[in-house]
Amino acid sequence: MAEVRWQSGFYAADGLGFLAPTLDRIREEGGRVVALVGSNNGDTLRGDVARLVSLLGIPRPGAHLGVVSFTGAFFHPKTYHLTRRDGSQAAYVGSANLTSAGVGSLHVEAGVLLDTRPLST
Predict the structure, then answer these.
(1) Domain for residue 121, yes or no?
(2) Is 86 part of any domain?
(3) Is 75 domain-assigned?
(4) Which of 74, 83, 92, 121 has the lowest tally of Cβ within 10 angstroms?
(5) Rounded Cα distance, 31 and 44, in Å
(6) How far, in Å, CA of 72 to CA of 43, rounded?
């Protein structure tokens, strides 16, 4: 992977399982990561943010993390976009937050996967 960007309205470190190996590789290779996570109602735990900071290798060039909180509104997007080394791209846009319930089949979620690579036949 060359680059990963995502936004998630709710975030907890227990949802990083599927993403952690990719983030490790990107950090080791000096790739770019841009992440925005919500702290709606202040629900995002300091330890979970610290885990993400560690996984991204912050501070380092190319790694950017924002924690978003609004008064009277929720930060609620769920978009994930990656660019591979070969220049192909993939994205998920849907309802799954980056939490164990959102990505671990504990909630019924909907989404669409987009990929510039052709399907295998």
Answers:
(1) no
(2) yes
(3) yes
(4) 121
(5) 26
(6) 14
Instruction: Give the position of tokens 């735990």.
Output: 45
Count of other CB atoms within 10 angstroms of residue 12: 22
Check which CATH number belongs to the domain holding 34 and give it: 3.30.870.10
Judge whether 120 lies within some domain.
Answer: no
Query: What are the 10-residue block averages of pLDDT along the chain, 121 residues in total?
Result: 91 90 91 95 94 95 95 94 94 91 84 90 60
Is 35 in contact with 53 (CB distance < 8 Å)?
Answer: no
pLDDT at res. 97:
87
Token output for 95: 């309802």
Number of folded domains that form the chain: 1
Give pLDDT, residue 104: 79
Domain holding 23, by residue range, is 3-115
CA dist list (Å): 49 to 20, 56, 67, 120: 14, 11, 8, 38
